[in-house]
Automatic annotation (TrEMBL):
GO terms for cellular component: membrane. GO terms for biological process: acylglycerol catabolic process. It comes from the Bacteria. InterPro entries: AB_hydrolase_1 (IPR000073), AB_hydrolase_fold (IPR029058), AB_hydrolase_sf (IPR050266). Residues 4-228 form the AB hydrolase-1 domain. This is Pimeloyl-ACP methyl ester carboxylesterase. GO terms for molecular function: monoacylglycerol lipase activity.
Length: 240
């Protein structure tokens, strides 16, 4: 049995939404632990702005008695994973960072601002916007109208209550000072058709981490939905 794995989800997501298609395969080789951040799943919504250190502590607490573990971060969860590695260097054995960023660029900032503006309006309109930035264009073109309607319905019905606080954190994240201090094996995975976190932003994340490896998925910002088998293979190969 290899060391355990912690899962750090993205803004506006949950562990189930961001990882459920890959958890069974990942769990065949190692224990897998996770936690929903404030305002996601059954975790109560925060009453104050979210901070990376608090999310990192919550994440590591989810590992219980596991002495050593790797962390798989997705989107916002990449920043949480980085902070966990810096705060708990004796416990974090490796990082896999997917669709992450050092800090968001102007294109992503504009999209996150629109996301926040739509939160108080029509859920269907919000769901259509989320679909437009989360799904890669090749994957979306291949969807049937029925599949699109089903996706929109799921998004509209399952949007976490803490999205605004989570997106606010995304807008404030800046890992510039953190990344040169990382001293743990790291794989950074880009998502080639991403329309939320630009591929260039994820490549910049890899370039800023000493010794980081780089890989790329033929997907948009939803690798668990668009490329689960390949995502699992990249994670397993690296952690092995």
């Amino acid at each position: 049995m290899t060391s355990a794995l912690l899962l750090a989800h993205g803004a506006g997501g949950t562990v189930r939404a961001n990882f459920s298609p890959v958890i069974p395969a990942l769990a065949r080789k190692r224990p897998v632990f996770s936690v929903d951040f404030p305002g996601s799943g059954t975790t109560p919504r925060a009453t104050e702005p979210l901070e990376l250190d608090d999310l990192a502590d919550r994440l590591v607490d989810a590992a219980g008695g596991a002495a050593r573990f790797a962390v798989l971060g997705y989107s916002m969860g990449c920043a949480v994973a980085v902070r966990a590695a810096l705060r708990y260097p004796e416990r974090v054995s490796a990082l896999v960072l997917t669709a992450g960023f050092v800090r968001i660029d102007d294109e992503t900032r504009a999209r996150t601002e629109k996301w926040r503006r739509l939160l108080g309006g029509d859920r269907r309109e919000l769901a259509r916007f989320i679909m437009s930035v989360v799904l890669g264009e090749p994957f979306r073109r291949a969807m049937t109208p029925e599949q699109e309607d089903g996706f929109l319905e799921i998004v509209a019905l399952t949007l976490p209550t803490g999205v605004d606080e989570q997106v606010d954190l995304v807008q404030r994240i800046d890992l510039t000072a953190d990344l040169p201090r990382l001293a743990v094996p790291t794989l950074v995975i880009g998502t080639k058709h991403d329309r939320l976190i630009t591929p260039a932003s994820t490549r910049a994340l890899a370039d800023a981490i000493p010794g980081a490896r780089w890989a790329e998925l033929d997907s948009g910002h939803a690798p668990a939905l668009e490329a689960p088998a390949e995502w699992t293979r990249l994670i397993d190969d690296f952690l092995s």
